[in-house]
Amino acid sequence: MNTNKKLETLDEKLKEIANLGHASKLMSWDREVYMPESGSKHRAESISELSGLIHQKTLALDENNLLSDLNAARKDGGLSEDEAVIVRETWREYEREAKLSEEFVRNLSQLTSEAQDVWRKARANNDFLQFGPTLEEIVDMQRKKAEYLEFETTPYDPLLDGFEPGMSTEKTEKLFSDLRDFLVPLIDKVSDQSLDITHSITGKEIRKEDQKAFNKEILEKFGYDFQAGRLDASTHPFTLGSQDVRITTRYDKSDLLSSLSFTLHEMGHGLYEQGLPDKNYGTPLAREPSLGIHESQSRLWENHIGRSQPFTKWLTRQMQENLQSVSDELTTDNLYRELNTVEPSLIRTEADEVTYNLHIIIRFELEKALIEEGLAVENLPAAWNKKYEEYLGIEVPNNKQGVLQDIHWSQGSFGYFPTYTFGNLYAAKLDATIREEIDTVDEQLSNGTFDEILSWLQDNIHKEGMRYKTEDLIENVTGEPLKTDAFKQYIEDKYRGLYDI
Q1: Rounded to the nearest 10 degrees, how much is the dihedral formed by the CA atoms of 451, 457, 460, 465?
Q2: Active-site residue numbers?
Q3: pLDDT tens for residues 136-186?
Q4: Which pLDDT does position 10 carry in this prediction?
Q5: Beta carbons of 272 and 222 less than 8 angstroms apart
Q6: Closest CA to 275 of 464, 84, 21, 467
Q7: Where are the domains of the chain?
Q8: What span, in angstroms and rounded, lies between the C-alpha atoms of 449 and 446?
Q9: Using an 8 Å Cβ cutoff, are 294 and 475 in contact?
Q10: Which of the pair, 191 or 225, is modelled with greater confidence?
């Protein structure tokens, strides 16, 4: 079989794996949005079956040395640039998967699928003991996974690498230490003050139906394609799919800003998925290089654009024109302050952009302690509560608002949380670069014009897929590697104008 024929065969196999993955994702989406409670057991079995099949298909990529031969051709310079990217990244994924047995993959999938239902009930009952034994099993399997994947320095490295390829625990610790030293004293200063706000939105009751319609209209104005995506509701907002994008938000009749924030965040993920080149579906050229890059898209739209003063001018007009129950007292200044109030809080997904990263740092430190430092699961709530008091200065009243608030550990997503902060750091640098290259950004946001910003992201980030490794992509686009500088400058510039600091 010649090289061209091998590449065609690889493409067919990758599309088959992608289709199976798409089916699994749709099952997961349905579980969160529509599935009746009693369906969880059989759904877990179905997802486990698909996980095992995907594992088989991934290992079969090197059947008759297909992938090995192509990887050798890549190293010899015998492939085009696109072909080399596809083979390089497929080989990386194959090598990781080959270190895990099918039995392990199926068991982990079954466990985490069932665990999500256990977590939901434990959270609703505010009962960590109900979830504890299941979490112990998950932590044990994550330790085994790290051993199977092999590591030189710390077992957390291969778990982190699964979500943020190329990132090390050591580098993460340095970045997070720098952020923590910057944020904790800043938050102390801000916490001593309060903004003068007339709450013209917060606390005002707006019907769920009206919120749904408003969120949908905002999505359309930003360029979210409803011919290639949906908007639904779930307990924990998320995004799945490519060209069949499913984003979810959640609604509180007394908190429109919360649902809008969730929607803009997930929209960022959805626009990225819709911007990936569909012609390369199934291959690494139609996937993100890391979850941190994916997160940068959502944090940029949610915060750098969605909480900016120029955008708030346009948003105020939209609320006045489309929401009858909005108070006549609604002004741009009031709305801007409501969107950017800084206050240490319990819930990560509702945290402001100044305190948010401390929520992530806490989870990162606890994950490391569970995986490599011997922290017992039974002691996790106490460790969680201690860190919230130390970093954010708040007392955690119960486990529902504390250690049980996130779904990620029930999904087995150890190594995932740091990508949220990586996303914030990438987003800050991308935002600064966009403003350097498009000098009318603020004017466009004031007018509700988002096409040029979206086109810039599509040209510089979306269309590249996994062509570049994350560190190279960011340096190519912004001129600098990953640092905390741009984020810190953004926070200082913005909140000096709001608070006397």
Answers
A1: -120
A2: 266
A3: 999 999 999 999 999 999 999 999 999 999 999 999 999 999 999 999 999
A4: 98
A5: no
A6: 464
A7: 3-150, 169-496
A8: 8
A9: no
A10: 225
The pair of three-digit structure tokens given for residue 438, joined into one six-digit string: 């498009």
- The residues facing 249 across adjacent strands are 233
Structure confidence by residue, pLDDT tens digits, 34-91: 999 888 889 989 999 999 999 999 999 999 999 999 999 999 999 999 999 999 999 9
Write the CB contacts of 437 (distance below 8 Å, at least 6 apart in sequence).
Answer: 456
Residue 327's pLDDT is what? 64
Structure token digits, residue 113: 């699928």
Q: Coil, strand, or helix at residue 196?
A: coil
The answer to whether 304 and 428 have CB atoms below 8 angstroms apart is yes
Q: What is the DSSP string of 40-84?
A: HHHHHHHHHHHHHHHHHHHHGGGGGGHHHHHHHHHHTT-S-HHHH
Q: What is the rounded CA–CA span in Å between residue 260 and residue 115? A: 29
Q: How far apart are CA 179 and CA 354, in angstroms?
A: 10
Q: Residue ranges of the alpha helices (H) in 279-438?
A: 291-299, 309-322, 332-339, 356-372, 380-392, 418-437
Domain 169-496 has CATH 1.10.1370.30: yes
pLDDT band per the 50, 70, 90 thresholds, residue 199: low
Query: What is the SS3 string spanning 475-495?
Result: HHHHCCCCCCHHHHHHHHHHH
Length of the chain in terms of residues written = 501
pTM surpassing 0.90?
yes
